[in-house]
Amino acid sequence: MSISIPELLANDGFITPGDQVKIKSFAETSGMAYVKIALNFGYISRKNYERSLSNAGYHFAQIREEAFDPEVLKQVELKFANDHLALPLRIENNRVVTLMADPTDQLFIDFIRFTYDMEPDIIIAYDLDITWLSHKLLGEKYVKAAVYELLRRDPKSSASITFTTPQLVVIFSLLAIIAVGMVLSFKNTSIILNVIISLFFLVAIIFKLFLALVGSRFELHQAVSKEEVRNVVNDELPPYTILLPVYKEDKLIKKLIWNLQSLDYPRELLDIKLLIEEDDDKTLKAVQNLDFPAVFEVIVVPFHMPKTKPKACNYGLHFSRGTFLTIYDAEDIPDTDQLKKVVALFAKLPEHYICIQSALNYFNRNENFLTRMFTLEYSYWFDYMLPGLDTLDIPIPLGGTSNHFKMDALVELGAWDPFNVTEDADLGVRAYAKGYKVAIVNSTTYEEANNEPFNWIRQRSRWIKGYMQTWLVHMRNPATLWRKVGWKGFLGFNFFIGATSATFLVYPLLLAIFVCYVVFDFSTIRSLFPDWVLFMAIFNLMVGNILMIYVNMMAVFKRRYFELILFAIANPVYWLMHSAAAYMGLYQLITNPFYWEKTNHGLSKVNNPTNVVK
Amino acid sequence: MLAIYYIVIGVYLNHLGYYNRESIFYIEKTKIIFEGVGNRIKVMGLTAPLLPFYCSIIFSSVNTFLAPVIASAIGTAGLFYLIAVSMSSRIKNDDFYLYLVVLMFFFHPGIVYTATSGKAIYLVLIFFFLFFFNLLKFYRSNTTFHVSLASMSLVTLIFCDYKFIWLSLFFVPLVLAITLQSLNLGEKESIFRLFLSFNSPSLRRKLIGKTFAIYIILFILPIASIICYKLLNLTHANDLNYFIESPYATWTVLVDKLNYDMTTAATNYQLPELSILVSARVIYFCPLILVAIYLFRESTYQALTILTPFAFIEFLHIEYDKLYLTYEYYMVFLVLALLCLIFKAQTVKNQRVFKIIVALVVLVQFYTGFDFLRNSLIPEERSYMATLLNRTPNTDQHESMEIADYINGLPKNSHVLVDDAVAYPIAAFTNNIKQLTLPYQELFLSGIETPYKYDDYILIATAKNPFTGYTQLNNRYIPLIRIVNSGINYKRVYETDNWVLYKIISIQ
Known about the structure:
By secondary structure, chain A is of the alpha/beta class. Chain A has helices spanning 5-11, 17-30, 34-40, 46-55, 70-74, 78-84, 106-116, 127-138, 140-153, 165-184, 186-217, 226-230, 253-261, 281-288, 309-317, 338-348, 369-392, 407-413, 423-433, 453-474, 478-519, 523-528, 531-558, 571-591; strands at 86-92, 95-100, 119-124, 240-246, 270-277, 297-301, 324-327, 333-334, 353-362, 403-406, 437-447. In chain A, helix 13 (253-261) links the parallel strand 4 (240-246) and strand 5 (270-277). In chain B, 67% of the residues lie in helices and 5% in strands. The chains are: A alpha/beta (614), B mainly alpha (508). Chain A: It is found in: Membrane. Chain A: The chain crosses the membrane at residues 161-185, 191-214, 493-520, 532-552, 564-586.
């Protein structure tokens, strides 16, 4: 048993001498233990590690229920324990009972000796179990920071309070005015409401068409050319953190590794964190059972409410080492050269550009009606709308994944708001308000389109609820927002974030009125629409629908998804699903604002080849 | 400056009494919208052509009668701006062509007519220019942006003149050529590209997919817009084609008929518009188009694109055999020729010779443009030229003004039953449109049945009136209504060649 684990692994043929040198060199520069690097940077699978140690006579203990002494734990820092996959638990028989994944990690053994002035009593455990326990026992201060940091630093930007008192006063006053108006003069009040809604729709339609046209102008514009990507020197690349927040995504872990391995970026410079919730044994087990090397580091997020993705990301941020940082979902397939493109673009852009958003699209677009519609929507959103917003210098609501940040700026902004369920959109606006800018890169991440209607509605209800939250947060003081983001930003924010939810809420009502008007020709309805209001309403209905359908067609035409073009016609039906989700979101906003409506991934049966960019 | 120049000419002509039926139609409908009482939604939405009408409305706040002229003046200046900007961004370091365009916009009779007549030709030219401009840009860039802008321009073009819907017909075969060109193939010659594409299953799939997609992206917007607009016509006027067939919705129904009747009845024989001769007339009117075709000679599908409008007007001539092609359809070739110069003028090696040829052709066009307008088959166009050249008052609308003056002098609370299908010039010149009972109002039908209950006067078209067959209020109406409503007498109070105003006298 005198042989060290690195030697043992080399003798067993699991680590080549060349890799051995690389791991040791990386360990020296990064401060991480040998075993941490070997298991998390794709050198050896956990199965083989277990096999090798078992053959050498080591026994892996189940340690989750082990007793611990808070006084002992106090003397160890989580990051250190995490880097060494080791954790002292208690003093027993004048020895420090210590969990270790590598019982020969001399540095940690020396740490125990010096800190406690006792010899360690080593229990060998699975690295993931040690990680789980160390985060659970030592992660409290980090998880508290993840939840409360933004609230402490910038309470006005936190969605911890959904409706402020002035907002409630305004909302109820408006409702009261409408109610009184209806009682006093039902017809005139209805006409005024009609006018306001029609005008609002008209402006929203024109604004969206304008944005799409502006965005489509830059169809040929390459933010980063292939040549520039080729010119990127590997040795000059900075460390890059990738956060992968997952919850019960056990089926996707194998795909995830495949996708991450395809990224064209030096392995040692990638700092990939798989953020797993404390109660998510399924995913942890799936990682444990992998029979090939993993290329990510597992971070276990201790239990704390609210249980949201931004909280997990904030927690992961404490352990991140990258100069840049991005988030991917477990099922994401980014273009292989995406990270290099981002690095090249950051180098070209002025300093105040702190975030770069990649386009999102779907690999399972032809699976069913819903995935086709989703693809149409995303093509339009990411290929036309966001570049349009970018060009017009209007705050960009970031997409859920594939947004690449400068780490220091992200920390300065207070990272994500854990109480906001569309933390990405909120962060985009906050960045803009602080004078920072977001750019768009010509690279795509392919996701799995939701292919199941109820799952879709749940996911969309969260997004729309998040948009409502974001709108409420930033409109707490409209004058301040105007001052910070300017008139363009203010109008853009209201028509893009505010109007999106509002239009989905109003759409079915107007459609119902129109159907009644056409089918029953109610004279009452006619009297509520004076000629010019009716004219505007019909214009909105006809021109609005046609144009919105058309811009969707344009977007898929640009993507060369010719087979999807005609599906754009079904958009009015798709918008009704949005409306259902919007009402669900509104209900949840009132009753359960921080509830994270989980989207089930891995439902697609479509094979997802990696999107290799040559 | 150009806009001011046009406005000055337009206002001057207006003071000489020059009006055309199109601008009067817009003036009357504008008055109904802003001053009328009753169900105006049909007038707002179904008056055709829609966009020229709205453009005229925009300027009605300045002056209702001058609004169409102001719109056409500013619109034509806008067209110049579009052409000048595109030209200077494409032809660098050479202002010759720009000066030529300036010269044309100041002195070409056709362009001056477009700008100062108050007709919608300016909008047709703008959107025709934008349509072809974006299409030619799409050929080069292959971007969705340009093809979608082309499609939107086509929609607006159709809503400026519905006949342009037929232009899309000739793009149907052309789209295949466009797709073929946009495929990434090593072969350059079109026929071989087609051969290659059809013999490779993957290329064939791609070709078909892309062709279909281009059809959709180019034509779905016009088709959908027309379908929706026709549905609106159906729901609000019980007729799918109300906007093109009803004299209440569009001025063209009566004017086209009148133009044809007057010309065929004329004793002096003029060069007819025979099928082949239409294209020959185009070339006579705008020889610059030959230069344009020459410039695109090396690219088959682009040359075909330039030739499409020829097929279009030949088709118009066959489809609408009882119509003469108005000046507008010749003017589009002028714009097209300028567009081709923008794209290709600098590719000619011997610029000196080329410039001399272009300058000469432009000078010739000044004469042909003038000649076309002076000897036009359309009376309104001849009348414009006569007013401009002779600078003597134009009397075309005197009769309408005369009747309107009389109506203006009636007591304020008296009401006149008028059918504006034919009497819209009179309604336009009336000071208070509220005094008139017009067909857009629900009580018009009751008014026709029992005029004594709703109105004090009735305006009747005489048998001489060329449009007498298009209105119920003609010389057969009074005898008929006398039978239905005995006890009511009708007294002629004012009479001209084409109109009689009756006063309704109740003798019970």
